[in-house]
Design a protein that fits this description.
- There is one protein chain.
- This protein is an alpha/beta fold.
- The chain is built from 11 helices and 23 strands.
- It catalyses: indole-3-pyruvate + NADPH + O2 + H(+) = (indol-3-yl)acetate + CO2 + NADP(+) + H2O.
């Protein structure tokens, strides 16, 4: 990395030339790309707005969180999980794994560097990545990184989503998103409404039950719920095995039948299944099925009450769309996340308005003019790893070709001598 701030200061900020790519984001996707580039011998810079790697996992997840899939489907390239780790590693174990990954490949992100904008300069044929430092002695200082390749690795889950609901600003109780939820311990004895019935909503409700709270869960749409394991084998692993021999529609039917056998008919409790099968829905719309780890039993026993959508809030109550009113102390929004790419990347050809690559999997990893995307496959950590390996290989090939051509180039003075 070479700084030429003394010679180039058109924008009154320090400018830094990066001979390799700039990677935005030090989560699993960014780390996997960086590791691949390190193996290819390509220099790079990783920019991270938080003060640690995998900030989503470190700062925005609840205490009881574990990987939903077996560890072999969640490992990053060239670095398996330790053998002594359980089948489903805990939050702490996964964070330790990612920190060990960064250490093994000598990845040193520039922390507290918030990317304000990134734009391709057609004239210079370079990416201009502008950042501002948000912490420490350098807080407020601005830098512009110039590079030929830009890797967007901020992922699909950068910013929490909280829906706009009438009266929410008037509600006097506690309002938080699932990213700020840690444990049900602080909610003992309280009346809590959890909005959302995905994996996060189910787990938050289960955790609240385990801390002697009887939550109400708002179910606004249909959802697929599958057991995490079937006959001791991961449902995901079983599905991947069946897909090698059977068409997707048939695997969907088998999974739904097994789910009905194990979990029973959940429609009578208020959980309706989508008309499209779980795998097809995941592939076409990116909606992940819920993998049950105990919440369904709590729903059956009525320890978790399922309620219809919310119409509006008042100071101490919530009114449902069916007219029923519930007195509550707290509301937790398990309403998911969205990409933050539209806020800083000035580009409209490769990324859509929602911050996801327009090209469907498996073609959403590479754009034009040296633009790449990692971790937007809607296929979890395995998808992020697949993206990372493609990106590192692609950039590595270009990098090595340039080095080879540079070595083969005949010095000017020798060409001059040969003409005499």
């Amino acid at each position: 990395m070479f700084s030429f701030s003394d010679n180039y200061d058109c924008f009154s900020r320090r400018c830094v030339w990066v001979s390799g790519p700039v990677i935005v984001g030090a989560g699993p996707s960014g780390l996997a790309v960086a590791a691949g580039l390190k193996e290819q011998g390509v220099p790079f810079v990783v920019l991270e707005k938080a003060d640690c790697v995998a900030s989503l996992w470190q700062n925005r997840t609840y205490d009881r969180l574990k990987l939903h899939l077996p560890k072999q489907f969640c490992q990053l390239p060239e670095f398996p999980f330790p053998e002594n780790y359980p089948k489903y590693p805990t939050k702490k174990q996964f964070i330790d794994y990612l920190e060990s990954y960064a250490k093994k490949f000598d990845i040193n992100p520039l922390f507290n560097e918030c990317v304000e904008s990134a734009k391709y300069d057609e004239t210079c044929r370079l990416w201009r990545v502008k950042t501002v430092s948000i912490s420490g002695d350098a807080a407020g200082s601005e830098v512009e990184y110039l590079c030929q390749w830009l890797v967007v690795a901020t992922g699909e889950n950068s910013e929490p989503v909280v829906p706009e609901i009438e009266g929410l600003s008037e509600f006097k109780g506690e309002v938080l998103h699932a990213c700020d939820y840690r444990s049900g311990e602080t909610f003992r004895g309280k009346k809590v409404v959890v909005v959302g019935c995905g994996n996060s909503g189910m787990e938050v409700c289960l955790d609240l039950c385990n801390h002697d709270t009887k939550p109400s869960m708002v179910v606004r749409s249909s959802v697929h719920v599958l057991p995490r394991e079937i006959l001791g084998k991961s449902t995901f692993e079983l599905a991947m095995l069946m897909l090698k021999w059977l068409p997707l529609w048939l695997v969907d039917k088998i999974l739904l039948f097994l789910a009905w056998m194990i979990l029973g008919n959940m429609e009578k409790f208020g959980l309706k299944r989508p008309s499209v099968g779980p795998l097809e829905l995941k592939n076409t719309q990116g909606k992940t099925p819920v993998l049950d780890i105990g919440a369904i039993e709590k729903i059956r026993s009525r320890e978790i009450q399922l309620v219809s959508g919310i119409n509006k809030f008042s100071s101490s109550m919530v009114e449902l769309v069916n007219g029923k009113k519930i007195e509550i102390d707290s509301v937790i929004f398990a309403t998911g996340y969205r990409s933050n790419v539209p806020y800083w990347l000035e580009e409209s050809e490769f990324f859509s308005k929602n911050g996801i690559p327009k090209a469907p999997f498996p073609n959403g990893w590479k754009g034009k003019a040296g633009l790449y995307a990692a971790g937007f496959t809607r296929r979890g950590l395995s998808g992020a790893s697949a993206d990372a390996m493609k990106i590192a290989e692609d950039i590595g090939k270009i990098w090595k070709d340039r080095l080879r051509k540079k070595k083969q180039k005949v010095p000017t003075h020798r060409r001059c001598i040969s003409t005499f």
